Each structure stands twice: as C-alpha cells, then as structure tokens.
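Morning. Coffee machine broken again, so started the prediction first thing and wrote up yesterday's gels while waiting. Chain of 335 residues, entered below exactly as on the submission form.
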Amino acid sequence: MFSNCTRQLLLGAAASAAILITSFTAYAGSPSSPPRPRTTNINLAVASNFYGVPPSNSAITDIINAFEAENPNYTVTVTDNGATSTLEMNIINGNKAKVDLFLAADTATPLDLYLNHFTLTSPYNSPGFSFNGISVGSSNNLFSFTPPLYMFNYATGVLAFLSNTPGVDVTCDAGGTCGYSTVYSTVAIADPALAPYGVAAQTVLTGRYGLMPPLSSNPAVREYPNITATLNAVLAKTDPVGFVALSAICSNGQYPTQGTSALAYFSIEGGATPGTIVNNYNPLTQAGIAINKRRTAAQNTELTDFVAFMTDFATSPSPDSPMVTTLKKYCYNAP
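Came back before lunch.
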C-alpha cells in the first residue's frame, strides 16, 4: 500500500499534529490566554466645575467610571483641571499635561482655540477622512465624505448663591426673592477673567443688584482663581456668601449638600420655578474640543468613542444614558 518512506512521512505529520493540538489545548487553558487587547488611554483637561472634588463629588469621575465599565480596554485620565482660561493657556503654552480632550466651562474658549490656535486642535472623529473608502487623514481633503468634528456641547451649568453662615438663609422665601444683599460684608466669586462662572456671577451682581464695575476694585467682592476655590472660601467662612456652581452642592438632584442654604440662579433662558430666580447671565453651556497630540489609531478610536459617550443624551421613554444620569445627579442640564 504505502512505501516505508511514505509511511514515515504520514506518521511524522500525525505526530506533529498531535503536538500542536496538545500545545494549543495547554495554551488555551493557561491563565494567560487568550491575550487581552491592549488597553489604551486618553488624557483630559477638565474645568473646575465638572471636575468637582473626586472621587465622591465629581461629574467627570462618574462619567469616566461608567465609560470604563462599558469599555474594559479603555482608560481615561484627568491630567489637568482648573479655571477654563488657565487650562487653555496651559494647552497654548506647550500642552505639558499631554491633553487629548479639553472640557471647558463655556463655548467661547474652545471656539477661541479653534479659530485662533487651529493647529493646536484636531478632529475627535479621526481619521474621519476618506475617499473611495481609502483613509486620507487630512482636513485639507476636498473630497472628504466624513467632515472633521472638533467641538461638541456636553452640559449646561447653573449658577448658585451659597451661604455657610449660621442663621443666614439666602432663600428667604419659597419664591426665592432674597439672594444677594449689600448687607453681606463680602461676596465670593470666581475671577471673571479666568472662569465662565465668574463671568456669570459678575453679570448678576452688576445687572441685577446694581454693583458698579469693575468688581475687582470693589472691596465687597473677593475673586478666586476658579469656581472650586470660590466654593472653598464660602465653606471655610472666609466669605459669608458666594456664587458657586450648583453642581458642587448638588447630589441626586437635591441641594444644598454643603453650606447652610443656597439659591439657584437660572440663566436668562431658564424657566421660573418656585425657589429660583431667572437672571440675566448667558447660559453656561459647556463645550469640549479635541487637542492635537500624537495618538495611536487605537487612541483616536477611544477619543471618538468617549465623545460619543459624553454626547449620548438619551432619556425617557428609554432608560437614561450614563451621561444624562450624571447630569441629573449634579443638577446640570443637557445642552
């Protein structure tokens, strides 16, 4: 039937196959198999209001935890936080924090980066450019069928007036007709030159309560480098009252969780509800923008997925998305 030579070749092949099957079975049962996909990471710069006080009182921490739970091969790291203008300058001055995505407390600052420092920005839907199914990877491609996306809105914040002085109730009545008064020795606000929430507070103090600008020369007004520092000044009783981010004193949609009393100041586009005041500051719509930095293809994919996660505002009748759940928890509104 078979020659000795042929028989030896067949036996050798069978032995080799048996060894391969045994080896595969041993490998498949080993603790290190099968190898997991490599984890990728992106870095964030986050405005103080959305950064909060991690881990228990931080909107961005909640978002990152939910995102990582759904995507075990992704990690997200906050490498810079502070006042929006400070974060922008850090990016302009070399991006030492290696930021991939900047989450600002306004829309004007990301727009400034886009318009006046365009080379520092990048699309968050990278590669995003294709022609006849071939990735080109250049925003100069006139034949792109997938336009580059740079900016997105992710939240709308609310200004709040907070007291931590025993016996001082800034709400006064159910209609919320008290709020700021010149009887307070000092009022804390975030520096309007650095923080959008400081701009909102300045607008309310000058437009609603008649304080004369510039507020920086008014001894009754104390300015702090960001909205978290402003909150800390009120909680420490350095100032009896102050304008803070409602998100900092909100949990599960209820406030105040810190201080003695608080009053929500909704923007000019906000609706009047009992216990609130509709004011003359522009909506605190918060935007993000992708930053130009060397990234792997996997990191670009993660960046796209993270932005999609942050802009998923699905709500009833479907279950709330993780983003909507977080916004409600910290008294933000969807943009």
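The CA atoms of residues 131 and 142 lie 10 Å apart. Going to sketch it on the whiteboard this afternoon.
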